[in-house]
TrEMBL record:
This is Putative non-specific serine/threonine protein kinase. It comes from Medicago truncatula (Barrel medic). SUPFAM superfamilies: L domain-like. Residues 1-23 form the signal peptide. Residues 31-70 form the Leucine-rich repeat-containing N-terminal plant-type domain. It is found in: Membrane; Secreted, Cell wall. One of its GO terms (cellular component) is membrane. The lineage of its organism: Eukaryota, Viridiplantae, Streptophyta, Embryophyta, Tracheophyta. It is a peripheral membrane protein. Keywords: Cell wall, Disulfide bond, Kinase, Leucine-rich repeat, Membrane, Plant defense, Repeat, Secreted, Serine/threonine-protein kinase, Signal, Transferase. GO terms for molecular function: protein serine/threonine kinase activity. Belongs to the polygalacturonase-inhibiting protein family.
Length: 231
């Protein structure tokens, strides 16, 4: 009898879990649209009226300028908005784009801290935010972007250290943190990034030198090395 009861309890528990899991997986293209509208709402200047007219709920989100969706899931796959003089902060709601692979907002005037919510996007392969006005630290959570292949943070106003967690990015091919105000030692963990081909660290305020470990790695794997590091 006790056994039967505990079995029933277990069954009810699993059913509850199943229903709960379904509930959290209800994201769809509508969720993606609201995430992009939240992104748009924090843009304070759009001098060429690129998004203000085009990103309208009267047209399908996958047809918005800069947005592409993938055919398989019908969800937002990439957002590419370069050279558009957009000003504002990046909405944390981008972290809801669960099928997001490419975020490229190179050469705009986005500022403030980069939202750590974006580091939840486990499918993200390209993060290109160079030539903006981001400030504050490079979030350690970037190390959670396990599929990341290209990370461009150059020409911003980032301060603080490069987080050690960067070494977790085992598929990263290119890392550019040049032209910021970063300091401290270059983390040893960089030597663990076995896919790395391009590393640009110049024009910062790093201290110390590249250790022999990193140098060894560099000579083994890097095809282009640009080590004009300001110490
Ligand atoms: C997305 O899901 C919501 C409920 O979570 C639903 O109301 C809406 O119709 C769905 N949209 C599409 C396009 O399937
Ligand atoms: C938005 O821009 C895209 C790409 O330039 C274009 O194909 C589409 O027709 C535009 N939509 C509206 C509503 O202006
Ligand atoms: C952005 O501007 C640069 C420099 O003017 C140019 O080389 C590049 O092709 C532009 N990119 C786009 C997508 O317009
Ligand atoms: C940035 O975009 C502007 C046009 O909006 C262009 O004149 C400039 O050359 C671009 N700079 C880079 C580094 O791409
Ligand atoms: C999206 O994310 C934000 C903050 O990251 C959250 O507050 C919001 O409820 C989410 N919206 C949807 C529709 O999932
Ligand atoms: C970086 O921050 C400093 C100090 O707040 C400021 O003077 C400078 O204009 C900023 N540079 C950029 C490119 O945003
Ligand atoms: C590199 O990775 C190995 C195992 O994956 C780990 O034992 C080691 O501590 C890592 N080294 C650094 C410098 O993070």
């Amino acid at each position: 009898m006790v056994n039967l009861l505990s079995c029933l309890l277990l069954f009810l528990l699993s059913l509850h879990c199943f229903v709960a899991c379904l509930a959290v997986n209800t994201k769809n293209i509508t969720t993606d649209q609201s995430a992009l509208l939240a992104f748009k709402s924090l843009i304070t200047s759009d001098p060429y009226d690129i998004l203000s007219k085009n990103w309208s709920t009267s047209s399908f989100v996958c047809n918005w300028v800069g947005v592409t969706c993938d055919e398989r899931h019908g969800r937002v796959h990439s957002l590419i908005l370069r050279n558009m003089s957009l000003k504002g902060i990046v909405s944390p709601n981008l972290g809801n784009l669960s099928f997001f692979v490419i975020l490229d907002i190179k050469n705009n005037s986005f500022g403030g801290q980069f939202p750590i919510e974006v580091c939840r996007l486990r499918r993200l392969k390209v993060l290109h935010i160079s030539y903006n006005k981001f400030e504050g630290g490079i979030p350690a959570a970037l190390g959670d972007l396990s599929q990341l292949q290209y990370l461009y943070l150059g020409a911003n106003n980032f301060t603080g250290f490069i987080p050690e967690s960067i070494g977790n990015l085992q598929w990263l091919k290119e890392l550019d943190t040049s032209n910021n105000r970063l300091s401290g030692p270059i983390p040893q963990t960089i030597s663990n990034m076995s896919s790395l081909e391009v590393l640009k660290l110049f024009s910062n305020y790093f201290s110390g030198t590249l250790t022999s470990d990193i140098m060894h790695h560099v000579s083994l794997f890097l095809t282009i090395c640009d080590f004009r590091i300001l110490i």
